Amino acid sequence: MRLDGKTVLVTGGTDGIGAQLIRQLRAKGAVVIASGRNAERIAATRADGFEVIAADLSTPAGVDALVAGLGDRPIDILVNNAGVGTNYDFRSGEVDLAGAEATYYLNLHAPTLLIARLLPVLKARPEAMIVNVTSGLALAPNAGSPVYCASKAGLRSYTLAIRAQLKGTGITVVEALPPMVDTQMTAGRGSNKLSAPECARQIVQGMERGSETINVGMVKVLQLVHSISPALARSIMIRF
Question: In terms of CB atoms within 10 Å, which of 161, 172, 230, 232 comes out highest?
């Protein structure tokens, strides 16, 4: 898809991968609208010339606020990028039930609601795209973040199903699967993390190519292993 002139909504666009996506999409000539929930980062992103709609997508009110902020403007591309993790490990006794609920809502419920509510707008465009940012952990979970893994696996299944439903409508349904990326969310966790700019570059490149699946960084290797033996992929990843 040619991105020049397209209007793109990127959720979670004020930090991490999203902050890089909005800049790289703008550099391609797209008109970019971001959503975010941190007041300081929203202000900084607006100062950089972006439109930002304040919306906490871990709540139903946040989804309503984002849709209301868009009004009746045409949207060509919806990028469901906003994501969060939470402490949920029975081995250490760190189980945050409220955080789990917010994680499921932000990572899974909000994207499904936004797609449903914006689908008429997307269908009205000559060509359109939905990009759901899942994770390599949607293929094979690790032991350390079961709620995050489950929410991303749910979004992956949803993406595959609606791709089949929307075939022939002019809407390309894309899944982007990053590895662990060096962002504020992953601070202090893991090593050999992919940089956020490089992750965004690979996603934007995949969007331009019209790829239905964008395996980012080392997820290419995980996807290959998973295609040969899902059990082997699970046995490797569950140790982390």
Answer: 172
Which residue is associated with the tokens 């509510």? 117
pLDDT in tens, 36-68: 999 999 999 999 999 999 999 999 999 999 999
Residue 145 has which token pair? 């973040």
CB atoms closer than 10 angstroms to residue 206: 19
Q: What is the pLDDT of residue 190?
A: 67
**Distance (Å, rounded) from C-alpha 210 to C-alpha 207?**
5
Locate all alpha helices (DSSP H) within the chain, ordered by sequence: 16-27, 39-47, 60-70, 97-104, 110-123, 146-165, 196-209, 219-228, 230-237
**In which band, very low, low, confident or very high, does the pLDDT at 182 lie, cut at 50, 70 and 90?**
confident
The active-site residue, picked from 88, 105, 148, 158, is 148
The model's pTM: 0.95
148 assigned to active site: yes
**Which amino acid appears at position 90 of this protein?**
F
Domain boundaries, the chain: 7-237
Tell me whether strands 94-95 and 88-89 are parallel, antiparallel or unpaired: antiparallel
Pick the CATH number of 7-237 from 2.40.10.120, 3.30.470.10, 3.40.50.720, 3.40.50.280: 3.40.50.720
**pLDDT tens-digit map of 110-144:** 999 999 999 999 999 999 999 999 999 999 999 99
